[in-house]
């Protein structure tokens, strides 16, 4: 067994052990995943996150034929937002804690999410908009191990739309013709994305990718048997590595909403930290997340950018071979999450060793465990 995997097994709590199992770094027979999940759920703040799925009970019936944009003006969006009870906040938090398919408490709630996905897809077909909320839901289902019959078709349909942007040479995405701006002249001082590049409009000619597109494509990459589909995904990854694309820095500016007849901020695109700099320059919070996602792409793993990032991590290697990253690398772990640092430490550090750790050392030890796990996982993916 790899020294770091052994160290993680000996010192890691239930969340680390669940993550090791999910990544195939230790045998699935090593522990009972439901017992590990139950241990994590002893924390009330984490337990609350599971109840947020109940917002999706009977969701198709609640939504009915009301366009979901109109519905969300009266009822807060349960998928997209910065509140802790929005799916974008609690679902990645639970996934980072190791919750996955086979954990009974999650299995019992996922059916509500799958029903909501169908409702969003029906709405998108009726309103001629790209199925972005459906894509967000699908990505999280995939990340937690749930695969359903038409998942490859969903991904392929979206890929075919996104792939078109890789076939053109121009990177002129923004509107410069004032006559095509649907608001006062002051909008000319903003970056207005041309309609044909609008990632939220199903009739866009060359839809730009958003981070959920990439998460969806890469998570299913290893299951795809059609080499033509894989080639298209590889093309999208090369497109992201293009210096012209990276100049956008992950922010697409403003887009026109055809349903609401107004402008909305658009994002997120894919910003690669360290791409044209030797410093992260504020990108610490997303650095490990981006590396984790991109480590699923053969194109990315062979790139100079990825090699540069892996070398960058080595400065944080300890004498024991573990990895201890600065606190800023982990801001995303508790950002608007239903658990604070104490809950996180409780899930990540083994109960057998927690009493031997000084109080002021617990947070950094939890980060050392989580950082070492992520680095070990990424290196393992590269070698496969």
How would you describe the overall organization of this protein?
The chain is mainly α and 384 residues long. It has 3 domains: 1-31 and 275-384, no CATH class; 44-148, no CATH class; 149-271, no CATH class. Helix content is 51%, strand content 3%. The protein is built from 20 helices and 2 strands. The protein has helices spanning 3-11, 14-22, 33-40, 44-51, 59-63, 68-74, 87-96, 104-127, 132-143, 151-163, 211-221, 227-240, 243-246, 284-294, 298-301, 304-313, 331-334, 341-348, 351-354, 362-383, and strands at residues 253-257, 262-266. The chain has a two-stranded antiparallel ribbon. The longest helix has 24 residues, at 104-127. The radius of gyration is 21 Å and the shape is globular. It starts with a helix and ends with a helix. The model has no long low-confidence stretch (mean pLDDT 86).
Number of folding domains? Answer: 3
Taking all residues together, what is the mean pLDDT?
A: 86
Outline, from the CA principal axes?
A: globular
Weakly predicted, low-confidence segments: none
Q: Kindly state the percentage of residues in helix.
A: 40-55%
Structural class: mainly alpha
Question: Which strand order do you get reading across the main beta sheet?
Answer: 1-2
Q: List SSEs in N-to-C order.
A: HHHHHHHHHHHHHEEHHHHHHH
């Amino acid at each position: 067994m790899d020294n770091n995997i052994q160290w993680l097994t000996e010192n890691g709590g239930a969340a680390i052990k669940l993550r090791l199992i999910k990544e195939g770094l230790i045998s699935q027979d090593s522990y009972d995943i439901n017992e590990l999940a139950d241990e994590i759920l002893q924390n009330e703040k984490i337990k609350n996150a599971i109840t947020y799925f109940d917002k999706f009970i009977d969701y198709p019936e609640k939504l009915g034929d009301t366009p979901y944009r109109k519905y969300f003006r009266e009822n807060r969006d349960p998928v997209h937002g910065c509140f802790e009870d929005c799916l974008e906040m609690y679902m990645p938090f639970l996934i980072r804690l190791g919750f996955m398919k086979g954990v009974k408490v999650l299995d019992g709630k996922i059916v509500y999410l799958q029903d909501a996905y169908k409702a969003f897809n029906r709405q998108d077909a009726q309103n001629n908009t790209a199925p972005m909320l459906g894509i967000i839901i699908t990505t999280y289902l995939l990340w937690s191990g749930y695969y359903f019959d038409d998942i490859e078709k969903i991904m392929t349909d979206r890929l075919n739309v996104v792939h078109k942007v890789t076939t053109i040479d121009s990177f002129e995405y923004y509107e410069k013709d004032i006559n095509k701006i649907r608001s006062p002249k002051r909008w000319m001082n903003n970056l207005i994305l041309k309609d044909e590049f609008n990632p939220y409009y199903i009739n866009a000619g060359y839809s730009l990718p958003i981070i959920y597109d990439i998460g969806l494509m890469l998570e299913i990459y290893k299951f795809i048997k059609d080499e033509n589909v894989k080639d298209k995904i590889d093309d999208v990854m090369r497109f992201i590595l293009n210096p012209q694309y990276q100049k956008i820095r992950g922010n697409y500016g403003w887009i026109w909403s055809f349903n609401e007849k107004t402008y909305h901020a658009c994002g997120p695109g894919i910003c690669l930290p360290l791409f044209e700099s030797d410093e992260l320059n504020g990108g610490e919070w997303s650095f490990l997340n981006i590396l984790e996602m991109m480590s699923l792409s053969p194109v990315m793993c062979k790139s100079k950018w990825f090699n540069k990032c892996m070398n960058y991590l080595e400065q944080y290697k300890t004498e024991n071979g573990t990895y201890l990253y600065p606190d800023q690398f982990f801001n995303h772990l508790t950002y608007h999450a239903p658990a604070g640092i104490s809950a996180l430490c409780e899930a990540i550090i083994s109960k057998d060793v927690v009493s031997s750790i000084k109080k002021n050392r617990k947070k950094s030890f939890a980060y050392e465990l989580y950082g070492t796990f992520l680095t070990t996982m990424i290196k393992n993916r590269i070698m496969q």
